[in-house]
Amino acid sequence: MLGSKVLSPQYVIWLLPLIPLSAGGVWGLSLSATFLAACYLTTQVFPIHYADLLNFRYPGPELLLARNLLLVLLWGLLLLLPVHEKRSA
Questions:
Q1: Mind listing the pLDDT tens digit for each residue in 6-41?
Q2: Is the peptide bond prior to 59 cis by the omega test (within 30 degrees of 0)?
Q3: pLDDT of residue 58
Q4: How far apart are CA 30 and CA 17, in angstroms?
Q5: At what angle do helices 60-79 and 25-43 cross, to 10 degrees?
Q6: What is the rounded CA–CA span in Å between residue 54 and residue 89?
Q7: What is the pLDDT of residue 14?
Q8: CA–CA distances in Å: residue 13 to residues 1, 37, 56, 84
Q9: Nearest-CA neighbor of 61 among 71, 76, 78, 49?
Q10: Rg (CA), the chain
């Protein structure tokens, strides 16, 4: 998702069911909150402030930068997920 040329709201929303399945507890809550914030900023950038982004006017580039930083944060959180070892009985 980070390396794609096109990152529109529908591509981000398709991943919505996968994020809560990636972790539970506090990790799952933080991942879900970060992802929902990225979804919100994506819908703010492309349908609403796209003309501002093309003309480099506030808040277009700032929203895009914030969305991209949230996606990098989400990627980092996914890499840092605690690994639960299976114990045999």
A1: 777 888 878 888 887 888 788 888 899 999 999 999
A2: yes
A3: 96
A4: 15
A5: 160
A6: 60
A7: 82
A8: 12, 12, 26, 28
A9: 49
A10: 16
Specify the amino acid at residue 30.
Answer: S
Q: Dihedral of CA 37/74/66/13: which sign?
A: negative
Q: Cα dihedral sign for 58, 34, 69, 39?
A: negative
Token match 């796209």: residue? Answer: 50
pTM of the model: 0.81
Q: Give one DSSP letter per residue of 6-63, joined into a string.
A: ---HHHHHHTTTHHHHH--HHHHHHHHHHHHHHHHHHHIIIIISHHHHHTT-TTHHHH
Q: Which residues contact 62 (CB under 8 A, 6 or more apart)?
A: none
Residue 34 is encoded by which pair of tokens? 């970060």
